[in-house]
Design goal:
This protein has three helices and 14 strands. It is mainly beta and 200 residues long.
């Protein structure tokens, strides 16, 4: 079974039902070398992946395959604490003992396990992929930004009730750039997989 990584606050948003989408660029490295040169043509069929055509050449095409496909069940990777016998003790999201720790660490005979190394048997949250499509990262709508777990943010408010709101799509832009560095930052406008899911 495949695992998937999320930041801790995004795991909370998945659990409370406010995050039902994620955007990932893995598998799109070739088209993202020059994202403006490629056009998305949709599902190629037969579980091959999704088709892209190269606009300058007009004859070159590529089949790109996302890591996660519709109907797959995937486990969410998160940091957890293992006891002396190798059994599960608790999860980082549920405990204060994780503050200021560095990897790897062993305390009181147990050890903290990075989410990178979480096996499926230790997972408590699972999602089913319901849809996958490709789009440029800047094409995100406000509705999809909310599905990403982002919310409008109040930037300024005063006693005269002057309020400045940062839209959810701008909050998503900041989130994307905090995770993805060049050449996959939002300003480059890379192609991404838009992966919709539900908790199972």
């Amino acid at each position: 079974m495949k695992g998937i990584l999320f930041k801790p606050d995004m795991i909370r948003a998945i659990v409370d039902g406010s995050k039902t989408q994620t955007r990932r660029s893995a598998g799109l490295e070739e088209v993202n070398q020059a994202p403006d040169d490629w056009e998305y043509n949709g599902w190629a069929g037969s579980w091959q992946g999704f088709a892209f055509s190269n606009l300058p050449s007009a004859t070159t095409s590529r089949i790109c395959r996302p890591r996660y496909l519709p109907n797959e069940v995937v486990y969410i990777k998160e940091a957890y604490w293992q006891d002396q016998s190798g059994g599960l003790w608790d999860y980082k999201l549920d405990s204060s003992r994780w503050e200021n720790i560095e990897w790897p660490v062993t305390i009181c005979g147990g050890k903290a396990i990075s989410p990178l190394f979480m096996p499926a048997w230790a997972a408590r949250y699972f999602i089913r992929i319901t849809d996958v499509r490709a789009e440029r990262v800047q094409e995100i709508t406000e509705e999809d930004a909310f599905a990403e777990g982002c919310k409008n943010k109040v930037l300024f408010s005063n006693s005269s009730f002057d309020i400045v709101i940062q839209p959810a799509s701008d909050v998503f832009r900041e989130l994307w750039n905090s995770i993805n560095k060049p050449p996959f930052d939002r300003e480059v406008n890379p192609w991404v997989w838009v992966i919709s899911f539900k908790v199972v």
